[in-house]
Structures are given as structure tokens and as C-alpha cells.
Amino acid sequence: MRLPAMPVRLGVNSAAVIGLAAAALAAVPLATQAQAATPRVTQDRLTPTALTAGSTATASLAVHSSACFTVRTLGVGVRDAAGRNLDFPGSSGNVRICPAGVSITTAARSLPAGSYTEFGFWQGTDGVWHNLASHTLTVSAAKTPPVTPPVTPPLTPPVAPPVTPTAPATAAPVAGKSLVWSDEFSGPVAYGSRWVGSTTPSYRYGNHNPDDNKLDWLDPSAVTVANGVATFTASPSSHTLENGNQAWTTGLLTTQGSTEGFQVRTGDYAETRVQLPSAEGAWPALWTWKNGTTGNGEIDSFEYHPDNPNLLELTNHVSPAQDYYTNAAAIAPGTWVTIGTYYGATSVDWYVNGVKVYSDGHGVGSNWSAYLILNLSVGAGKYHPAPSGTAPFSFAADYVRVYR
User: Fold this and answer.
1) Is the pLDDT reported for residue 118 higher than 60?
2) Which of 389, 302, 371, 318 is nearest to 3 (CA)?
3) Which residue has the higher pLDDT, 99 or 368?
4) Is pLDDT of 86 > 50?
5) Domain limits of the chain?
6) Cα(58)–Cα(248) distance, rounded to whole angstroms?
7) Does the pLDDT at position 168 exceed 90?
């Protein structure tokens, strides 16, 4: 079922600021050799890289550190060609950074057309500012809409066509379905009541499963929630697996074992919106599981491996069928994509960004049910590359919704 590999925070804004610089410099704390013990912070992800003038956008920053510590401020900086600071608003305060990583999303802003330098930054509790790696942020000019010539109205007004109401934001692409269960990740993970993150019967040893070419060692703390997004972070673990491989701590959410014990069943449509990872070894998926049923009740809404950057694996293990869906315009590392699955009795149908892309013609039968699993696995290298280093990597999810 696994596809083989195919500057200090100062900006110069006016002459008056320059005149005060000498006096202010003594008050600005700078990093010294005495602060060499400060943990090293590494920038893992920084977006966006492109904007359109006149439109607003947020910035996303993911970092990890060599040891856990708290910073006073964590944000995303922007400078224009003249060196003026035009940072994204909404920096986060009192942020705990650990080797497992943390991510933030700023408030939105717009920028004039041009080329800018964008970078993550943090401020220690000693007041010292630290800039992280930078890249170019290109803001393209907004397209000017064509001018429509005036139209002389006819003597008799035309009859207006009937108006088709716009589908609500929560509508499913499968007709006649209503939302029955969801997690929008608007608060901390509801461990116990809604999700379990420490163990799953789908793993031989409960919290790890080397038999399936996985380096996973489950830890609920590897799933964090901020700004309506759940981030799953994988990082090297101190545990050693039964086959001698070093494990990686990572995150998994399953409804099995929770108080709700929610299960999807025949006729349901499940959907998630995720940001695909780019790191080698990353193996995210939305799938189902139930011991003792045909194929263990497993339907893979998707599996993804960055070495096949434009491909999703769509698999029915209940009544075996599979498709490798490829679409470079929709599937790529760092891209947000919406993936849905209709669990039909005679056919399982898969949807990408609201469009049906595959029907297996097999289905799950009339009495099928199973638990949901959303996770980030770490591949051990048999079918797809294992991690090439020790840097943590992550995978993000906006929501999980089920319609019935």
C-alpha cells in the first residue's frame, strides 16, 4: 500500500530617528558572548513568499530550538529596500520554544508592489532581538480590471433569471449531507473526550509500530493548536525500536478510546484541510481503523510522501482498491489542500478541493463503521526516504469534519 520512491530590530524611518540613534544605542540590549548559552533557534517554515498589492495576508512561522526556553516575542519581520520595518502585526508574546517546535500565525497586512526581505525574529527575556533566516517576499502589482463599456438599457427591462443560493461554507460536495461531527481546532486538543493521542490499536505496541516501516513513537505533546490549526511535529526520540532503529516522537489523533468514541459509517463523508509537508520521511494521513473487521476497517482518505510531491495515495483496504492521484496544480509540499472521502456501500469516492477524483467501485458494504485517525508518521526508508537529518518537521491540519 506504500508507493515506492519514483539584523537587530531597528528600522530607519526619518532623519529624526538618525539624530537620536547615538543616544538610544546605549539603551538597546545587544547579544554578547556572555549570552552564548542561549538555546539555538532554527527557522523551519516561513510564509508567504509572494503577495499581490492591495490584498491582505497573514504570515506563518515555525521554529524549533536546541533546548526548551521562553521568548518574550516571536514574530515575522519585513523590510523594504530602504531598510524600513514593515512587520506583520500580531506577534506572539511569551512563547515557549522547544526541540519539538512551535508555529504561529500573525495578523494580516497588505504591502505595496515591490521586493522585500522577510524573516522570522524573536526577543529574549533579556530584551535582545534575534533575526532568523530571511528570504525575498515579492509583492506583484494588482491586475487592473478591464473597462466595460456602458450598455444602453433596452426599452423593456429583461426578466431576471432565478438566483441560485450560494452553498454554505460547511456544505459537503456529496448532496444531502449535514455536518454531524467536527473538530475545527479552535482550542486545545480535546484529549480524553474527543481524541486519544498516546496509543492506538492500529499500532502493534500501542504507541509505536516498527512492523509498518514506521519510526513513530506517539506523544500527545507532539500535537499543538494555535490560531485554528493543529500542528503535528516529529522529532528524534530517545527511544529505540525493537528492530534497532531510533524512534521519532510524533503525533497521532484517534477517536478510538475517547469518551465520545465517534465512528464514521457507511454513507458518511469525511473531510480534512491540510498543509502538506516537505521534509523527507514525513508521512501524513487521514484514515480509519477498527480491529476485527475486514481489512481492519481501513480506508485511507490520503497518504502523502514528499518524494512524490504531486501525488496522493487513495486506498480502500476493506474491499481492496487503490489510486495514485497526481495533480501538480493542487498537490505540492507546503500547499493547503482539502481532501474528502465518501464511504459508499458499493463505491468509496475521493474528493480533492471539492472535486471527485476517484471512485473505486468496491465500497465498504452496508454495515461498515470505523474510528478516525489523523497523524504524521515518520517513514523508516523501505518504500520512501527516511529523514535525512535530525531537524524536526511538521504537518498542519485546519479541521476534520464528518457529514451524514
Assistant:
1) yes
2) 302
3) 368
4) yes
5) 37-140, 179-403
6) 31
7) no
Closest CA to 350 of 340, 336, 364, 338: 340
3-class SS of residue 373? strand
Contact between residue 387 and residue 216 where contact means Cβ atoms under 8 Å apart: no
Confidence of residue 54 (pLDDT cuts 50, 70, 90): confident
How would you classify the pairing of strands 223-226 and 229-240?
antiparallel
Candidates 28, 71, 65, 15; CA nearest to 44 is 65
Whether 179-403 and 37-140 are alike in CATH topology: the answer is no
Give domain 179-403's CATH number out of 2.40.50.140, 2.60.120.200, 3.20.20.140, 3.30.310.50.
2.60.120.200
The three cell numbers of residue 164 are 441560485
Q: Which residue has cell 529574549?
A: 124
Nearest in space to 256 (alpha carbons), one of 183, 192, 181, 209: 192
Q: Could you tell me the three cell numbers for 25?
A: 544605542
Percent of residues, the chain, with pLDDT higher than 70? 84
State pLDDT tens for residues 298-344: 999 999 999 999 999 999 999 999 999 999 999 999 999 999 999 99
Q: Quick one: pLDDT at residue 227?
A: 95
Report residue 240 as a C-alpha cell: 529505540
Q: How many whole angstroms separate alpha carbon 205 and alpha carbon 195?
A: 19
* Bridge partner residues of 229 (DSSP): 226
DSSP-derived secondary structure for 278-290: -STTEEEEEEEE-
User: 398: which 3 cell numbers?
Assistant: 485546519
Beta strands in 67-222 (DSSP E): 69-79, 92-97, 102-105, 114-123, 129-140, 179-183, 216-218
Residue 60, H or E segment: strand 60-65
Q: Is 274 exposed, middle or buried (0-12, 13-18, 19+ CB in 10 A)?
A: buried
Name the CATH code of domain 37-140 (choices 3.40.640.10, 3.20.20.10, 3.40.630.30, 2.60.40.3880).
Answer: 2.60.40.3880
Confidence band of 69 (pLDDT split at 50, 70, 90): very high
> What pTM was estimated for this model as a whole?
0.61
Distance CA(126)–CA(38), nearest Å, equals 11
Q: Got the DSSP string for 191-247?
A: BTTTBB-S--TTSTTSS--GGGTB-EEE-GGGEEEETTEEEEEEEEEEEE-TTSPEE
